[in-house]
Amino acid sequence: MAKAAGKNQVVKPDYGKWAGDCMSDIFNNELFEAFASASDNVYIYVCDMKTDISRWSKAAVNYFGLEGEYLEDAANVWGQHVHPDDLKVYMEDIAGVFSGKKKYHNCQYRARNALGKYVWVECKGSVIWDAEGSPIIFAGLMTRIDGQSKYDSLTGLLTTQEMHYFDFAFQSGIALLIGMDGFRKTISNYGYNIGDELLISFAREIGDLCKPEWKALRFSGDEFLVIAFASNLQEVTDFYEELCRETDTMKLEDGRKVGVSISAGGALFPQDADSRDVLINKLEHSLEYAKNNLRGSLVFFSEEIAKQHERGLVLREDLKQCIRNDFKGFELFFQPFISPDSGSIAGCECLLRWKGERIKDSYPMEFIKVLEDYGEIHEVGYWVMEHAIKQQAEWSNTYGELQVSFNVSYQQFLDDAFEERAISCIKKYGANPNYIIIEHTESCQVEAPKELAAMFGRLREQGFKIALDDFGTAYASMEMLKWLPVDYIKVEHSFIRELAQPGHDIDYVIVDSLLEMCRRLGYHSIIEGVEDSKVADIVGALNATLLQGYHYSHPICRKDFEKLLDKNR
Q1: Which residues pair with 217 in a beta bridge?
Q2: What pLDDT is recorded for position 318?
Q3: Which DSSP letter does residue 361 get?
């Protein structure tokens, strides 16, 4: 085969002489051109490592201004087209492939086209080795990605596109997926412009704290990814703790200060994951666990997290199946309201319970969150409402009018059909709305206060009673009283349970003050969390409207609750 005398020269071979060697099929015109013509912005190359002769698609020749389809010493020839700032990255990646340190050539860089303009390309390739361990064929393709951005337009950090160029199987390190806690609420309180300002500042802090060899990327929304190559747990832990300190209070351009809490999930590579997709999957599971169980912490992936995630998947599927199967597995339990004056049952709170086919021990906080996260809470909530109203109507005929309450998700209140369906249930079962208490849990994030207040007003006009649950746990409790029309205040149980313990006089003062406020503002009051006789004696003298807690009864099934009602007659 004829070769040019010098390097970096065009080779014009006599193709017929190649008929018997290993490249004959690969260099065959019909086969090569079939692949090469697949796309205008994808360029094919094949290199015979024994002869150091390569063939390039005509599209590559034309677009990049190569001297011909066949080249000798392609790595150096092509290197002249690579941007000087990217040449080191390109050459190191190539060297890593041929040394066996990397399995695949996978690199992103800028290359000069025929017009002298640098464009971004994604270059991928792989090597075929002979039985002696020598490379015989190097083949791959390049894709123009000049229309894609390597950097996030808001924060300036790398995009997740870059993860395609990290070799998690042949490099070691630790990855962190960092999320800002309660970012939606921050946007609701301050607006999207302030949200963007916080994201920019947060990204800057991450970039400043990262070591030179680390990579910082914007993952999505308020989540950021840090790839800490060749680092240990202590280094990464120190980084996270420093980031927490630096972002604990962030100063806005207008001088205001905003507190930012962050959680993070971590995973090791290649120990936990040796590929991009698996790594992301485990990072997401770890971050989810941190946010749900240890908010404000860094949690590394473990088998326990994997099991919990699997449980969540099963839980979701079982819940969906139960909903499709006419809500089989769902059941209402009832916890009585006690009148402090007479000690008799004045009503009850309806509490949702669920038992699946595979998961039989799920507690309400767990499965209700799943229902809310995946948008299933609406239909289940309507099921609860209908059965609670139906039960109140049935009991009123036997035991007289009883106050029956049920919880409603904030998401449900914003459903345009909620009011209509509530009224429809009253008419369907002949219930008295004056004895139906709809409970709103104060801890819910209120993004549309005017709409919520309007909904409460319309429901009260129909005769329904509105209760504000878990009152007293935050400043928002007092603030909400200014604009939410309610009838009942439920005092949060954390103030109640330790009333009888020494040194908790302040709890007594708080509860007494809350009840006095209710009386002066014309609200009824319900004290929940009355768990023993000592606490019952204390709260019995505080003049609340109703009492509730384990001292009187745990939540029980309908049959057992009716036995209590029979004794109460």
Answers
A1: 158, 225
A2: 92
A3: -
Residues in the chain, overall count:
569
Which residue has tokens 């199987």? 169
Using DSSP bridges, classify how beta strands 488-491 and 465-471 pair: parallel, antiparallel or unpaired: parallel
Q: Is the pLDDT of residue 266 over 80?
A: yes
Q: For CA atoms 490, 495, 496, 497, give the dihedral sign.
A: positive
pLDDT of residue 463: 96
- C-alpha to C-alpha distance for 10 and 17, rounded to whole angstroms: 18
Could you write out the three-class secondary structure of 406-468?
Answer: EEECHHHHCCCCHHHHHHHHHHHHCCCHHHEEEEEECCCCCCCHHHHHHHHHHHHHCCCEEEE
- pLDDT at 26 exceeding the cut of 70: no
Asked if the peptide bond before residue 555 counts as cis, ω within 30 degrees of 0, the response is no
pLDDT-derived band at 148, boundaries 50, 70, 90 = low
- Give the global pTM: 0.63
User: For the chain, which domains are there?
Assistant: 15-144 (3.30.450.20), 160-301 (3.30.70.270), 329-568 (3.20.20.450)
**Res 345: pLDDT:** 95
- 343-382 tens-digit pLDDT: 999 999 999 999 988 888 888 888 988 888 777 888 999 9
Query: At 120, which helix (H) or strand (E)?
Result: strand 118-129
Contacts of residue 274, defined as CB under 8 A and 6 or more positions apart, other chains included, come to 168, 169
Cβ atoms of residues 289 and 308 within 8 Å: yes
Are 104 and 166 in contact by the 8 Å Cβ rule? The answer is: no
Question: In 10 A of CB 6, how many CB atoms?
Answer: 8
Tokens at 446, concatenated:
């209120």
